[in-house]
Design a protein that fits this description.
159 residues; 4 helices; 74% helix
Length: 159
Amino acid sequence: MAAEKLIQTLEKLLKLHQNLYEVTLQKTEILKHDSVEELKELLKKEQVFVQAIKQVEDERIKVAAEFLGNNEEATLSACIEKATGAEKEKLQGILNEFTEIMNQLKDRNQLNRELTKQALQLTSMTLDMIMPQETDINYNKPANKNTEKQRRSIFDSKA
C-alpha cells in the first residue's frame, strides 16, 4: 500500500518536471525572439511549477520515509532496493524517466542561460552605442580625479 502511494507521488512529481521542461522549451523560443512581456508571463508560470514541485517533493520525502520505515535516507534508490516484484520495476522505470528529464532540464537551462547572457551583452553594447563616452575636443588641464566626471550607465552589468 505504501509503495502505491509512493509511486503515485513520484508520477505526480515526474509530470510536474515534464511540464517544467515544456516551459523551458517555450522560454528558449521566447529568448530567441526577444519578447520581454511573454518572458515575464512565462517566468510567472515557471515559478508556479517550481512551487508545486517543492510541495510534491516534501510529500515524496514523507511517503518514502513511511515506505522505508524511517530508518534510511528517503531516496528513490533506497526505495527501489526495498521494493519487490512489479513495484520494483515500476520504481526503476520512474528513476530512468527522472534521470532523462533532469538531464534534459539541465541542458535546456544551460542553453537558456547562454541566450540570456548574450541578450544582456547585446543590451549593454547597444546602451554603450547610444550613450557614448564624452570626449573633450579642446585641451583641458586634467582635473582632480575625485571631481572628474564619471560616465553613468543605465544598465548595471554586475547585477
